[in-house]
Amino acid sequence: MSDGEQRIARLIEKDLSPGETAELERLLEADPALRARLGAQVALHGMLGPLAEDESAREGVIRRYVEAIRRADEDTFEQEVRRKLRKVVSRRRILLAAAAAVLLLAAGVLTWMRFPEPVATVHRVESVTGGDALAARDTLTRGNRLKFRGGLVELDLHSRGRMIVEGPADLEFTGPMSAVLRKGRVLLRVTPDGRGFRLETPRGTLVDLGTEFGVLVDERTGEVETHVLEGEVKAIPRGQPQPILLRRDEALQQTGDHNVRIPTARDSFYASLPPARHGLPAMIHWDMEASGPSGLPARSRGIEEGNHGLRFFAGDRRISPRTVDGPFGRAVGFDGRRIFAESEFKGIDGNSPRTVAFWARVPSDFDKNQGFAMVSWGEWDPGNPGGVWQISINPFSGDGPVGRLRIGVHGGMAVGSTDLRDDRWHHIAVVLYPAENPEFGQHVLLHVDGQLEPVSKRLLGEIDTSTKDASHGVWLGRNINIDSDNWFFRGALDEVYIFDAALSQEDIRALMERNEPPR
């Protein structure tokens, strides 16, 4: 029991000193949830006084206080409640205690109407679309339902822990320690105060026994997956009285009446949200307008000195690129056989944050051998797949849906959901945000056409891009793995940007809509 709750209990027993009463008032002002509990608990006891009186006296008491409530505004009413509390302490008279309780009951009603008990606070919002507007510091109360089509929301459950919700999602809070997940992904980290948190799903109930677990509810199939990352979770399947205990690194897949244990996939859930960007990011930009064999100049800001322009090749021979109409002026077409571009700029090194943004057009008759790679850099080493940074069109069905946006190679990757094989221009942005040990599956955001892209397949892999000893700079249209049969990209690229920071969705939309980098 908290200090505030103890004081409420002693108030009911009329055992508070004036100093303790003043401290209770301070706690009530700072904690809406405590005010609600005060109204409920004190009213329950205090109403016994008026109910024990004769009928005429009881009616008179109720009539006077109802009239007082009707006349009073909130500030005056709260002052009256405080005055009555002090009289409870000083005079200790039963009738006055009953009257104060009636006032407190009304105060509780007003508190519930104006300040419903908070169950969570929005901590961060990232690229949320298709739902009610959400912003940091928004308060969620019992009955609030989060429904959004895409994006990420991080919630502070106050002393009980943190929750990350990934869209498309439908989550309803039914109390401080309970919620219903109808669809979407949730990662829940609880504190000791949050032990016992209950999450209802279409397949049953999950009871947290500490400390961290993720849940995926597929709206289309009704399938539920529970992945325990730390601690234990008790799964209670619907219609089955026998619970299933899941421990660290254990997972449960629930389909229909079947409950099957599966390997835990830590890469199925975002572990954190990107922090807000500060300052003006350094950048390099190739507008992909027509150029000759001498190359295409770069526009840069905050990048080390050097000739960072693009040179175009067909095999080992320099060429003038083939241009096509793009979203902004002209764009460059790649044939999927020999043509690529290279810059002396080596790219962003190590695990530093970055954003790569550009326009891409992928043919509807896309061949899986022509998907690698649109933008790439680093030094390929089969023993260190995280040493390269490569953005491609996924060509392998075993790695996820073919034709979708892909970041990474075997050993660490994330694959999107939108089929890009439609002969149309799409705006692409891939964001690595700051983290202590960033992974492809958990710290990279994909954006397609200005919207956060749902990830269809993840594979954890540490990001540590190797540029210092790389034998080449940034490549456009060429696979980073020169020993692969899938060497070159077929399609077109326009307005290619590389930033040394994690851009926000607002920044990305400005690039897409106006071709304007952050200023």
Question: What kind of sheet is the major sheet?
Answer: 12 strands, mixed
Tell me the structural class: alpha+beta
CATH topology of the largest domain: Jelly Rolls
Subunit arrangement of the protein = single chain
Number of helices: 8
What key attributes describe this structure?
519 residues; alpha+beta; Jelly Rolls; twelve-stranded mixed β-sheet; nine-stranded antiparallel β-sheet; 21% helix
Notes on the structure:
By secondary structure, the protein is of the alpha+beta class. The protein has 3 domains: 3-114, no CATH class; 118-268, Jelly Rolls; 283-514, Jelly Rolls. It is 21% helix and 36% strand. Strands 1, 2, 3, 4, 5, 6, 7, 8, 9, 10, 11 and 12 form a 12-stranded mixed β-sheet that branches. The chain is elongated and about 90 Å long. Mean pLDDT is 83; it is low at 47-56, 68-78, 91-99 and 106-114.
